[in-house]
Amino acid sequence: MEKAACDGDARITYAVLTDSGAHKLREAASTHLADIERLFVGRFDEAELETLATLLGRLDLGSKPADCAPPS
Known about the structure:
Blueprint: E1 2-5, E2 13-16, H1 19-41, H2 46-57
């Protein structure tokens, strides 16, 4: 992980994923997805999963300040 500043808003600091961090993330993905499968898909029927998806879809998790996009 590396830090990157936002030129448009000094209150913002981004965590930037390095190549090494991206590799670790890919390694962890399979066990993480297996846990999600076990914890959610294994406990809810299809209608409940659809309801859950609708409710979680209402969360605005991607909002960012308009004057500062994260580094690419």
